[in-house]
Design a protein that fits this description.
It contains one helix and 34 strands. It is mainly β. The strands form eight sheets. Strands 1, 3, 4, 6, 9 and 11 form a six-stranded antiparallel beta sheet that branches. β7 and β8 form a beta hairpin. The longest helix is centred in the first third of the chain and has 18 residues. The N and C termini lie far apart (76 Å).
């Protein structure tokens, strides 16, 4: 029995080692070499100091110096825990990950912005997933530069304390479903992309979208239980004159969109049902919230729409995921202006026009009961059999886009 337990334990430990690898720098460089810097090994970290007049201090390790090379099929996140102690030090990391032994192998570069003047350790996660992340790891190089690969010239006064470097299968997250932005400067795990600026002050997260870009915030630090929290509730003030759509982007890239008002003078609350998407299951993270003008074409691809007009900021008071089951009158709250119904009111036939091909239509009464579901002949619906009243048409368009529109049956 003891042999069986020992074998099981060995298998368990071996399985863990395939999923994660850590260099902790306890009285050792752990095979790493310093770049453009001097070094000192400490009891529980590795200290690097820049060289005066030399660009881009950092550290690197070759496969020959690794006890075990990372398994590219099991891990794809590099995490570095460190202090950038100088207030005038570099504000970015450039990771260069090189693989070999496969036709598609090569170098993958990843940039991340970092803080300066650290008194506490900070952890940064860099995702090296790409077609080049195949074969075997040849070298890992971490350079301290100015953000987005701009050279940083050392003065001999910049000090970096490296606590540990890890290779992980995923970014560790904690559970959180309520984001209130009550602490100035704390984005609560949301990172921005394609924005001119972002800030958190006075309980409000404010972002300024870039024109002709897919401006968004993505949650990377927290996850939530999708089976429990199936409704998004967001309170915001849209100062843009033209960005009329909120897009919820699921981890697989599919979207659900919601029409919002523009040029707001006050905060408004919107709700969105997320339960219908196949990706909304288990522990979910990595989702994005994007804002754009639904009629504005992407300048790089005229067949795609929804880039930002860049005509004003978005102020977000809170983002909350709840277990509330929406009544049909609450679904998406605002009729989708991009969907047209004719005639409305109607007594028998209803024509439906949408920007993208329609894959399915559902009709709900005001009690939330499904009255009809169709997957064919979707441009014209025969609703003569419905009782008189107000109904909500739920339109499923190509690309996992779900919209709603009210109509009256006479």
């Amino acid at each position: 029995m003891m042999k069986i337990i020992t074998l099981l334990l060995m298998f368990f430990v071996a399985s863990i080692s395939l999923q994660a690898q850590t260099w902790d720098f306890n009285n050792s460089k752990d095979g790493w070499k310093n770049i453009a810097s001097t070094q000192k090994t400490k009891s529980d970290y590795w200290e690097l100091t820049s060289k005066d007049g030399v660009n881009n201090p950092g550290l690197k390790i070759a496969a020959a110096d690794m006890t075990t090379a990372p398994d590219v099929t099991a891990v794809h996140i590099l995490a570095i825990t460190m202090k950038n102690k100088s207030a005038t030090g570099p504000n970015g990391i450039r990771l260069v990950m090189e693989t070999e032994g496969h036709a598609d192998a090569g170098k993958k570069n990843v940039d991340v912005e970092i803080s300066q003047g650290d008194t506490d350790y900070q952890t940064y996660y860099l995702d090296v997933s790409s077609p080049k992340w195949v074969g075997t790891v040849k070298e890992i190089k971490i350079l301290f530069k100015n953000y987005k690969n701009q050279n940083f010239t050392g003065t001999g006064n910049e000090v970096f304390d490296i606590d540990k470097v890890e290779m992980l299968s995923s970014i560790p997250t904690t559970e959180k479903h309520n984001f209130t932005f009550d602490t100035d400067g704390d984005q609560e795990g949301f990172v921005e992309k394609n924005v001119n600026s972002i800030s958190v002050a006075g309980g409000i997260l404010t972002l300024d979208p870039k024109v002709d870009k897919y401006s968004n915030i993505q949650q990377v630090d927290h996850h939530l239980d999708a089976s429990t929290y199936g409704t998004l509730e967001i309170k915001l003030k849209n100062n843009s004159t033209d960005d009329d759509t909120l897009y919820f982007v699921f981890p697989d890239g599919s979207t659900k969109e919601l029409t919002i008002t523009t040029s707001d003078t006050a905060f408004k609350t919107y709700k969105m049902d997320l339960m219908g998407n196949a990706e909304w299951t288990g522990e979910v993270t990595g989702f994005k919230i994007r804002f754009g003008d639904a009629s504005r074409p992407n300048p790089n691809d005229a067949t795609k729409f929804g880039v930002s007009s860049g005509t004003g900021t978005i102020e977000i008071d809170k983002i909350t995921f709840t277990s509330e089951v929406l009544a049909v009158d609450d679904v998406d709250l605002v009729d989708d202006a991009k969907i047209s119904l004719y005639p409305n009111p109607t007594c028998d036939l209803l024509s439906v026009h949408a920007p993208k091909p329609i894959e399915k239509i559902e009709i709900y009464n005001m009690l939330g009961q499904k009255a009809m579901s169709k997957t064919d002949s979707l441009k014209t619906l025969n609703i003569s059999q419905l009782e008189k009243g107000i109904y909500v048409l739920k339109i499923y368009q190509e690309g996992n886009i779900v919209s709603s529109k009210r109509f009256i049956k006479q």
